Each structure stands twice: as C-alpha cells, then as structure tokens.
Amino acid sequence: MSKAISQVPFAVNEPVRSYEPGSAEVKSLISAYKQMWKEQVEIPMIIDGKEVKSEDKIAISSPQDHQHNLGFYYRGTMQHVEDAINTALAAKEKWNNLGWEQRAAIFLKAADLVAGPYRDRLNAATMIGQSKNVHQAEIDAACEFIDFLRYNVEFMTEIYSEQPVSDTGVWNRSEYRPLEGFCFAVTPFNFTAIAGNLPTCMAMMGNVVVWKPSDKQVLSAKIIMDILTEAGLPAGVINMIFTDGKETADKVLSHPDFAGLHFTGSTTVFQDMWKKIGNNIHQYKTYPRIVGETGGKDFVMVHPSANVEAVATGLVRGAFEYQGQKCSAASRAYVPKSLWNDVKAVMESQLKTIKMGSPEDPSNFINAVIDKNSFEKCKGYIERAEKSAEANIIFGGKCDDSKGWFVEPTVIETTNPKYESVCEEIFGPILSVYVYEDQDWKETLKLVDETSPYSLTGSIFSQDRYAIDEAYKALENAAGNFYINDKPTGAVVGQQPFGGARASGTNDKAGSKMNLLRWVSVRSIKETFVSPKDYKYPYLG
C-alpha cells in the first residue's frame, strides 16, 4: 500500500444536518418528499446490472398513509434467485482481479453521491417508505451509510497493510482473498444504512453478492442500487432480488458455492438459516462465514445517584425515537424508588410536548410503525397491560390505524420484573419500567442480566463511579454495546462498533475492521530468496 493512499483521510464522520425550522436544508428535503410522494414508482429487481421485471406486481404503501399508493415492485421467483447466483459467480473472476484501490474508488464515489446529489432523495425515500422523521432519516440514510462506505475503505486499507514479520532471507506476506463462492445479504426495514452496508462491505472486499432487502424497504433500496450503479459498480457484483424469504433461503443456502451470510433481522429467522447451513454443510465447497445481528431487549439501569433529567431524557429518546423500531431501543428500565416520581414527572412534561404524525411535518417526533402486523402487536401488549393486575399504563396507550399505523409513546409500569413486556422483544414505542427498592441495587443488577436472552445494548445512569464500575462488571455479558450516562442507541460508525451476543447475534461489530475481516480468506505466503541445497542441519556435523 502506497504512503499516498494510506494518508488520505477517508475515515471522517459525515456531519449531521440540523434541519432547523425554515432552513434551506429542511425546505429542500420536504420538497423532495412531496415530489416522491406524488410519483408512481416502478421498482424492478437488478440482476447482472439489468432491470428485471415479473408478472407479479406488489403494491407499495406508506406506513403513515396505508391507503396512498406509491407504486409497485416486481416480486421474483426462484428462477430469479438462480439467475442472481449464476450472475454473481460469472462476475466473480473479473471483480476479484480488479485492484483494491479501484474497488475503493467506487464506494468512495458512492459516499460522495449520497452526501451530495442523492442525499435528499435517499432521505425522503426513507421518510416515505419507513416512516422516519427528518432527523432519523438524516442520521441513518445519509450520515451512517456515508460513514459505512468511507470508514470501510479505511478499514480495508488497514487490513491489507497488516503483514507478518520477515526473517533474514525470507519474505512473508499475507494475501486477503475474497471468499470462494458468492455471499448472501439479508437486510431489514429499519435502517437504510444497514441495507446499504451489508452487501457493499462484502463487495468492497472482493466478494460477489446476492442481496435480498426487506419488502418494506424497497423504495430506499432502489435508490441505493441507483447510487451504486452511478458510482460505477460493475454489473453482477451486487444483485438485488425481491423474492419469498423462506424459499430464497432454501435455494441460496443449499448451493455448493454459498460462501457467506450477512444478516440483520429476527432471531428466529437467523436461527433457522443457521440450522439450514448446518444441515447443508457437507454440500459446500468451503465452510461458510455466518454473521448476524438479530434483536434486543435493551435495558436502562438507573442508580440512586443518577441525574433525574438525564435519565428521563435518555428514556424518552432511547425508547421512542423511530417509534422504538431500533434493535438498540430502550425497552426496559429499572428505576430506584427514590428517583421514580421525579423521573416520571420529567418524562411526563417531555411527552406532553411530543407530536405524532407524518414525517412530512418536520415537527413530528413520532411517526408510524412499519405495518399492520407491527401495529397489532403493539396494540396487543397495550391492551393486555390495561387488563393486567401487574401492569399500569402511565403514559400513552392510544393506537390509531384509520390513516396510518400510529401508536402513541407508551410507558408501562409493572410490579412484576418478569412481566411479558419486560422480557419480550416488541419493536415498537413501548417502554416497560420496573421500580426497585434502593437497597436492592445488587439484586437488580442480577435481574437485568438474567431477564432477557438478548445481549445487544444497555446503559447505566449513575454519578457514583463505584456503582458504574459495579454495573460495568455485573453486566459484562448483558450488552455488546454498553453506555454510561447515555441512552443505549445511536452507535456511530468508527466510534462505537455495533453488535451483540447471546440471542442478539454473532457480535461481529458492524462499523469496524472486525466485520470486514469476516469477508476475507487469508493466504500466508513465504518466499525464500536463497534456497538451501543440502538437507543437513548444522547439528548433524
């Protein structure tokens, strides 16, 4: 790697736009939103760089207005899956032989396209299709995706530069080869940046990819492919398909050239896919890499020394930004009795000012949950809490599906630390609070660790350094991302590598070099300059 290349500052976090009321930024974004809202979009699959259509047209609607027709996408068949696999494999040799700096240039250009001419359009698509407000769209579709692209180039150069020691007369080197075969990316609805990162980070390391985005994220997925195409990504390197999830997994994971899975989604689906891979292990040419980030039941642990306003703000932001539809969202909180009334009062004053509605109005903090299934699930938890002797809804609780899938920010206070909403992943704007006796601090730490099978994110609020250290140690395995005096959401690429263990995934840390290392296969090379001419070592005389 040349010195000039290594000194280019790729890894700089993209500044977040403020979108202050009346600013040119917000006017431009809302203008793009309104324009896209009127468009009747037609979204084909992309296989071998070509638009692929089918007879099966699936209508697209918006979570904030489920009666409004945005257009349609073409749903594919298993033949399209096979075509995508064959296309990827056909593109592999030429892509593998392209210099790494040429690959890097494509993704750096893509980052600049997102930062510039595509920013409003990608953000607006995320707002319309995934119901994110202006800030949530900005930190996701723009900033995080840009950061993934730029930092991953930096991480790639660091990986390639890591070389072994060479002794006298010998040159040792490591070659970081792409995986042998094709990779499969399965991405979720909730983060446009994740949808962009999972296939592109594998492709950046020289792999070819079959990408299946969520059918609830097709609007922004199309724009991601438009960006990659304009950036110069060769045909066949990333192939985007819209097909049945189970059938696609069956076909892809039984292929002998399957080499790697990059997944973000539900725990159940990931476990089923892992089981399929295990059952098919004898068919593969190589042992596949399996990287997955699934879900969480993320906690906020509050010590009696904590700052009340900081706790209340952390809970409101952590639980209700993007309607709680972040894998990292604060979903369960443990608050000492001595602080609870004060925390509750500050939360009440903040929640009273929160507006709910369409992202088209930038003053709305809360938007719609993603679809009817999510709405009904949230409504079910709320209705059961209303009837339960162990739970009390202290804030929110209203649901309205007349136009969009709207669920109010809801706080459930429970006397049972194992009540269903404390233990189960909900993926909606519902926060469960268990109030503990101050003297039960240590016992409550144990409760936090044992309540959930997940281990994604969690936080501790305390002004007592001994208490922070105690929680830090007691909750060692309870969260892959641990926050001190902050909400458990908002990991930034290059700053807080993201991922969890236990039922939350393989903890391969997106936004770091660790993740990219999963998509290479290392070859160690030793070259001896003057070869020995006799088998005898000195000890033989």
TrEMBL record:
<comment type="similarity">
    <text>Belongs to the aldehyde dehydrogenase family.</text>
</comment>
<dbReference type="Pfam" id="PF00171">
    <property type="entry name" value="Aldedh"/>
</dbReference>
<dbReference type="InterPro" id="IPR016160">
    <property type="entry name" value="Ald_DH_CS_CYS"/>
</dbReference>
<dbReference type="GO" id="GO:0003842">
    <property type="term" value="F:L-glutamate gamma-semialdehyde dehydrogenase activity"/>
</dbReference>
<dbReference type="InterPro" id="IPR016163">
    <property type="entry name" value="Ald_DH_C"/>
</dbReference>
<keyword id="KW-0520">NAD</keyword>
<comment type="pathway">
    <text>Amino-acid degradation; L-proline degradation into L-glutamate; L-glutamate from L-proline: step 2/2.</text>
</comment>
<dbReference type="InterPro" id="IPR005931">
    <property type="entry name" value="P5CDH/ALDH4A1"/>
</dbReference>
<dbReference type="InterPro" id="IPR016162">
    <property type="entry name" value="Ald_DH_N"/>
</dbReference>
<dbReference type="InterPro" id="IPR016161">
    <property type="entry name" value="Ald_DH/histidinol_DH"/>
</dbReference>
<keyword id="KW-0560">Oxidoreductase</keyword>
<feature type="active site">
    <location>
        <position position="293"/>
    </location>
</feature>
<feature type="domain" description="Aldehyde dehydrogenase">
    <location>
        <begin position="55"/>
        <end position="523"/>
    </location>
</feature>
<dbReference type="InterPro" id="IPR029510">
    <property type="entry name" value="Ald_DH_CS_GLU"/>
</dbReference>
<dbReference type="InterPro" id="IPR050485">
    <property type="entry name" value="Proline_metab_enzyme"/>
</dbReference>
<protein>
    <recommendedName>
        <fullName>L-glutamate gamma-semialdehyde dehydrogenase</fullName>
        <ecNumber>1.2.1.88</ecNumber>
    </recommendedName>
</protein>
<keyword id="KW-0642">Proline metabolism</keyword>
<dbReference type="InterPro" id="IPR015590">
    <property type="entry name" value="Aldehyde_DH_dom"/>
</dbReference>
